[in-house]
Design goal:
The complex is a heterodimer of chains A (about 220) and B (about 200). With about 220 residues, chain A is an all-alpha fold. Chain A has 3 domains: about 70 residues; about 50 residues, no CATH class; about 60 residues, no CATH class. The two termini of chain A are about 15 Å apart. With about 200 residues, chain B is mainly α. Chain B has a domain of about 80 residues. Classes of the chains: A mainly alpha (about 220), B mainly alpha (about 200). At the A-B interface, helix 1, helix 2, helix 3, helix 4 and helix 5 of A face helix 1, helix 3, helix 4, helix 5 and helix 6 of B.
């Protein structure tokens, strides 16, 4: 019984939900209300499950502060900002139903979250140049083709390209909208086949890595 | 007053983050990084809490008794924190994985397989020689590129030519994609440089 509850019932649940989603789309449109209900449940469970990540992170950071581990000051800063943001956000939410109605929350959102969010991703810009230098070296025919396609697409998109020669736009357009189709479409087809194969393996209970414990 | 202070704080935080490429892990970068994690976590929790209230708790209060199921399933995921009851958390994970696979597979078959094949084999009805050249380029390129991914046979004999050509088509595709990526990242970096100069009033806001 315990074995059934711990393993078989879980695989059966996963399989049933997958099959319902596929049946509703391909063969059984009248099952749409059921599938819709399951999808709503999944969204709710997904939203609640963030709490688990938050608890683990907060536990770890609190331990850093409590035991005065190396660099605990950063953890203290993380926790204090988290508490301020959470309290002000909930204050706004319970007062008006909208967290941004709290002035302090709004100020922190606009002046800390937004600039940091807008800054962290573009940091990869610094590294993409060295990556481009390494990738775009014409050491053989393959690399030369990659270099040519990449340069034409960049010169087509950058305003300076058209200023140098009007033909960059035409050729760049061809590379962007036709030249790269076979390669990209291949990735899309091969990736789709891989996803389907993986999905069916999971359906059969052969892929279990994503379950807690992975047994 | 507070707006101006906020603007300068945002500017300073940006410099702290961009100290990373020059000085690697340093106190300024780590401070900004931890601030971002703390703030982001709080925002995510509030947003998810309001989602759960709107989608689950409010309907439950209004008499939709079925909404107790996702609430219980959601709470079951916290059993992961107790090692001996960890298996209970597999039920909500099973629901999430099942829904994800179902939606993923059905969302993949039409656009990534069916539409891709139809677009490749549909001959052009107008556009002249250039359209036919593009059609043949895509068709031949796709067949050769897919042959490159046939890993059950060694790429020798009759397979050697097509797979070699397929590799070249893939390189053209990757070049175009990488060119776009480089420009996209550079555009974002330019946006931050613009913000940097705007705060210093070197260019208009």
């Amino acid at each position: 019984m315990s074995q059934i509850l711990r393993r078989e019932a879980i695989y059966a649940l996963t399989g049933l939900v997958t099959v319902l989603m596929l049946l509703e789309y391909f063969f059984w449109p009248t099952a749409q209300p059921w599938a819709e209900t399951i999808r709503t449940w999944a969204i709710i469970v997904f939203n609640i499950s963030l709490g688990l990540g938050a608890i683990r992170l907060l536990m770890q950071q609190s331990m850093n502060v409590q035991k005065r581990r190396e660099n605990w000051q950063y953890s203290a800063m993380l926790l204090s900002l988290f508490v301020v943001m959470l309290l002000t956000g909930f204050a706004g939410y319970f007062a008006t139903g909208l967290q941004t109605s709290n002035g302090i929350y709004n100020w922190l959102f606009i002046n800390i979250y937004t600039p940091l969010g807008a800054t962290l991703y573009p940091i990869t810009g610094f590294y993409i140049f060295s990556a481009a230098y390494r990738a775009f070296r014409a050491r053989n025919v393959d690399a030369a083709l990659m270099l040519i396609a990449g340069c034409f697409v960049m010169l087509k998109n950058a305003p300076v390209g058209e200023a140098i020669w009007i033909g960059f736009a035409t050729i760049g357009n061809w590379f962007q909208f036709t030249g790269q189709i076979p390669g990209m479409r291949t990735f899309s087809i091969v990736g789709a086949l891989g996803l389907i194969a993986y999905g069916f393996r999971a359906l059969m209970g052969k892929e279990r890595g994503f379950y807690a414990g992975g047994e | 007053m507070w707006d101006v202070i906020g603007l300068w704080i945002g500017w300073l935080l940006m410099l702290m983050i961009y100290s990373y490429p020059l000085y690697k892990e340093n106190p300024a970068f780590r401070t900004a990084e931890h601030m971002f994690i703390g703030v982001t976590l709080a925002i995510s929790i509030i947003t998810n809490f309001s989602n759960v209230m709107r989608m689950c708790v409010t309907p439950l209060m209004q008499g939709n008794i079925l909404m107790i199921v996702p609430l219980v399933l959601g709470l079951m995921i916290f059993s992961m924190l107790i090692p001996e009851y960890q298996w209970v958390s597999r039920y909500p994970i099973g629901l999430l994985v099942g829904t994800g696979f179902g939606l993923g597979i059905r969302g993949t078959i039409k656009p990534n397989l069916q539409d891709a094949i139809i677009d490749t084999i549909t001959a052009p009805t107008s556009g002249g020689a250039m359209a036919w050249f593009n059609f043949l380029y895509v068709a031949v390129g796709l067949i050769c590129s897919i042959m490159y991914f046939m890993l059950t046979f060694e790429h020798k004999g009759p397979l050697q030519g097509p797979t070699r050509i397929g590799r070249l088509f893939i390189m053209v595709g990757l070049g175009g994609y990488f060119g776009n990526t480089v420009l996209f990242r550079f555009t974002m970096l330019t946006g931050r440089a613009q913000f940097f100069l705007q705060v210093l009033k070197l260019i208009p806001m």
